[in-house]
Amino acid sequence: MEIDGIPLHPLVVHAAVVLTPLAALLALASLVPSWRERLRWPALVGALVAVGAVVAAYLSGGDFRDSDRFATASGEFAEKLQTHEDLGGYLLWWTIAFGVVVLVSAVLNPAKAAVRWLLGALVAVAAVAVIVIVVVTGHSGADAVWGA
């Protein structure tokens, strides 16, 4: 996957790295009771865009790894690349879970306090998880490429 000869992954990954934490912060803000009605739909749109960005980054990363550029990857670089790929898998599934929980929370908009609290707790856990995992995954990719 390339655009004008440039691998798609380094381009798409920036959308995932920026939009996913923003969506997570928006989802966390939507948990504030006085902001809930105003932010539940923007939070949902943000979460779905984040899922799309992470899926695109994951798929383009797999294609990038399988390209001729990495056919001879070995040693420390290969290990760092594998770590980045593993973290990318975690990020993919946590972001999908985040999207699903935000979707359920936005669509149901439960009246019962206990259900609202439970969904809010799930949104909060998933939001914090995707923020942490996107940072760790991005750092591992930068470390593999730039040797930080």
In short:
With 148 residues, the protein is mainly α. The chain has four helices and two strands; from the N terminus they run ββαααα.
Question: Can you tag this structure with a few keywords?
Answer:
single chain, 148 residues, mainly alpha, 4 helices
Task: Give a verbal description of the structure.
With 148 residues, this protein is mainly α. Helix content is 82%, strand content 3%. The protein contains four helices and two strands; from the N terminus they run ββαααα. The protein has helices spanning 8-29, 36-66, 75-108, 113-146, and strands at 2-3, 6-7. Strands 1-2 form a two-stranded antiparallel ribbon. A hairpin with a 2-residue loop joins β1 and β2 (6-7). α1 (8-29) runs antiparallel to α2 (36-66), α2 packs antiparallel against α3 and α3 runs antiparallel to α4. The longest helix is centred in the middle third of the chain and has 34 residues, at 75-108. It is elongated. The two termini are 26 Å apart. The model has no long low-confidence stretch (mean pLDDT 92).
In DSSP terms, counting alpha (H) and pi (I) runs of 4 or more, how many helices?
Answer: 4
Number of strands: 2
β-strand percent reads: under 5%
* Spatial order of strands in the largest sheet: 1-2
Sheet of most strands: 2 strands, antiparallel
Compressed to H and E, one letter per element, the order equals: EEHHHH
Mean pLDDT: 92
Q: What ranges have pLDDT less than 50 throughout 5 or more consecutive residues?
A: none
Please estimate the helix content: over 70%
The span between the termini is 26 Å
C-alpha-based Rg, rounded: 17 Å
Shape: elongated
Structural class: mainly alpha
